[in-house]
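user: can you give me the structure for this one chain? tokens are fine.
assistant: on it. calling the predictor now.
[tool input]
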Amino acid sequence: MSKIIGIMDVAVDGLQLSCGDDSTLEPGGFNRVARKGNRFAGYSEEVQESKLEVNVWIDATFNIAYFNTITASTITMTADTGQIWVINGGFCSAPPAIGQKDGKAKIVFMGPPADQVS
């Protein structure tokens, strides 16, 4: 029986983030767009950026200003199944949204398409 992803660790320039269990990676790549006129002609491609949404636990060490400075970082996501994805030149897309009810801050990273390195 195969193991299914259950834990994803996220690091920014080697700094491990304290994540919840609800991270989501859209690795990016190419979108294909149908091209047609009076008949189907084919398709063209456009680059789709990567997007990583992480919910980080808020404790006394949480510093929102740190995330606002992330503009050209190496963001690594490691799954407990062994896969590793890397976003080179990643950035924090907006100031984190902080949630009192669940004690987490939603961080959204974006960048060039992620590379699966393992």
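assistant: here you go. The mean pLDDT is 95. The chain has one domain: 8-116.
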